[in-house]
Automatic annotation (TrEMBL):
Residues 38-95 form the HTH lysR-type domain. It comes from the Bacteria. Keywords: DNA-binding, Transcription, Transcription regulation. Residues 1-26 are annotated as: Disordered. Belongs to the LysR transcriptional regulatory family. One of its GO terms (biological process) is positive regulation of DNA-templated transcription. The lineage of its organism: Bacteria, Pseudomonadati, Pseudomonadota, Betaproteobacteria, Burkholderiales. InterPro entries: HTH-type_LysR_regulators, LysR_HTH_N, LysR_subst-bd, TF_PcaQ, WH-like_DNA-bd_sf, WH_DNA-bd_sf. Gene3D superfamilies: Periplasmic binding protein-like II, Winged helix-like DNA-binding domain superfamily/Winged helix DNA-binding domain. GO terms for cellular component: cytosol. This is LysR family transcriptional regulator YdcI. One of its GO terms (molecular function) is DNA binding. NCBIfam families: TF_pcaQ. It comes from Caballeronia sordidicola. Residues 1-19 have a biased composition (Polar residues).
Length: 344
């Protein structure tokens, strides 16, 4: 792809022959950027491999071949003078240098996309787009009021919504595919280059269909609970940790019939039609409880509230539309927190 634009075409002053032939250190990224050697395709491939953890999946996402991605990554590593990925059977994991380079590469790609978008809209009156990532268990309660308020001020701006696990959403944010994320605070190493602003705390609840046998059970024990399928978030998610703590406090930590999913629609269907016991954030099922389709079970919930927050990149250039969306999210979060406090 020889026609790929470079990030910079500024000339570099010529060095003396001795210095040019006797470099003890790799050429610095800054020197290569100003010499025009790093191209957009280098950063695009690098960010795709970082996001997917696989050269093949990165190639599929970019609609190019795996050898093309491998060659491009090899070129970038040669230019920078460092190894960016460790390849193995499980895919491609960023090295320390790759992790250091990632937020800067994402900032470059994000800035370029914003610039092209701005030029496209200028004089053509094209509507803009903002992209956000949100946990599927958070979206049903938080996004309807958020998007209603945002649309009142920006009716011509499109909103692209991504859902997924917290780690997937953060990867999209790092690669500049999303402008912001509504999710949970990750481990410190996963939050490099990003800020977390708490919006509200989300209580965990356990629900079943209204005519479920457990609704009429006077004393729910671990053995009684084990007779039914239990639906929980996937292992490794923060909300799963809360579910595990509740099960442990209930003496049912060794249940064998677990169904792991983040899908709200699947969890709801299993609770309504399969006698499942569903561990789910409270806001997801409030409406169904009001309609008496689902009922809460009395379970021990000590320290089961999880903080939900707004996650942004430090280097993100914010447009007026994005600022307006952030304000709408904050207001929706404030209302959610008021509901939580009122439940206590």
């Amino acid at each position: 792809m020889d026609t790929d634009p470079t990030l910079s075409t500024a000339p570099v002053p010529a060095s003396t022959p001795n210095k040019a032939n006797k470099l003890d250190k790799p050429i610095t990224p800054l020197a290569n950027l100003t010499s025009g050697r790093i191209k957009f395709r280098h950063l695009q491939c690098f960010l795709a491999v970082t996001q997917f953890g696989s050269v093949q999946r990165a190639a599929d996402s970019l609609s190019i071949t795996q050898p093309a991605v491998s060659k491009t990554i090899g070129e970038l590593e040669s230019i920078l003078g460092v190894r960016l990925f460790e390849r193995g059977r499980r895919g491609a994991a960023p090295t320390r240098e790759g992790r250091l380079f990632a937020p800067h590469a994402a900032a470059c790609v994000g800035a370029l996309r914003e610039g092209v978008d701005e030029l496209s809209r200028h004089g053509v009156e094209m509507p803009g787009t903002v992209a956000l990532g949100v946990l599927p268990t958070v979206a049903p309660a938080l996004l309807p009021p958020t998007l209603a308020a945002f649309r009142a001020h920006w009716p011509d701006v499109s909103v692209r919504v991504w859902t997924g696990s917290n780690s997937q959403l953060l990867e999209r944010l790092k690669s500049a595919d999303s402008d912001l994320v509504i999710g949970r605070l990750s481990e410190p190493e996963g939050m490099v280059g990003m800020t977390f602003e708490q919006l509200y705390r989300e209580p965990l609840t356990v629900v079943v269909r209204r005519d479920h046998a457990l609704v009429h059970e006077s004393s729910i024990t671990a053995s009684v609970l084990a007779r039914f399928p239990v639906v929980v978030p996937p292992f490794g998610t923060l909300i799963r940790q809360s579910a595990e703590s509740v099960l442990t406090a209930f003496g049912a930590q060794a249940l064998s019939s677990l169904i792991e999913t983040l899908s709200v629609s699947l969890g709801r269907a299993l609770a309504l039609h399969n006698d499942a016991v569903w561990f789910v954030p409270s806001s997801v099922v409030e409406h169904d409880i009001e309609l008496k389709l689902l009922a809460r079970l009395p379970m021990p919930f000590t320290s089961a509230d999880e903080p939900i927050g707004l996650i942004l990149r430090h280097d993100r250039v914010r447009s007026p539309a994005l600022d307006s969306l952030i304000d709408a999210i904050r207001e929706a979060g404030r209302l959610r927190e008021a509901v939580r406090i009122g439940m206590k």
